[in-house]
Amino acid sequence: MERIEQINYIKAPATLVYKALTTEEGLGQVWTKKLKVKPEIGFINEFDFNEGYLTKMKIIELHANDKVVWECIASDEEWVGTGISFDLSEKNNTTTVVLRHYNWKDMTDYYRWCSYNWAMFLYRLKMYCENEKTLP
Fold this sequence. Notes:
Elements lengths: L1 E9 L3 H9 L1 H7 L4 E2 L7 E5 L5 E10 L3 E8 L8 E9 L2 E11 L4 H23 L5
Antiparallel strand pairs: 1-7, 2-3, 3-4, 4-5, 5-6, 6-7
Family: Belongs to the AHA1 family.
Pfam families: AHSA1
Protein name: ATPase
């Protein structure tokens, strides 16, 4: 099994980063505006990327300001059955975010493309969390 792993450092408290990863407001700013999200274990988040299908992520774990884990139950066939986790740790008002997208069956071109896009996701998360006060 393959896995993507990315890290970023966000100059914002873990409470703000966690909120961005678990709410429609936050994920709407960093991933897609077409979504249904609820911070509740067992809830199935839905994300629409205008690809003709919904990406559905079941919430497996939520540990406030510390960890978020999703299981992909519908999406591109390479994503179905994979898991995505966000581990957060805060020190001196900087939050370290470790993103893992695991249980990939193979390392394909789509896998490589998704690795790039997860890095972009973390960059947008950083920009949103560090500049949230200036956003309308």
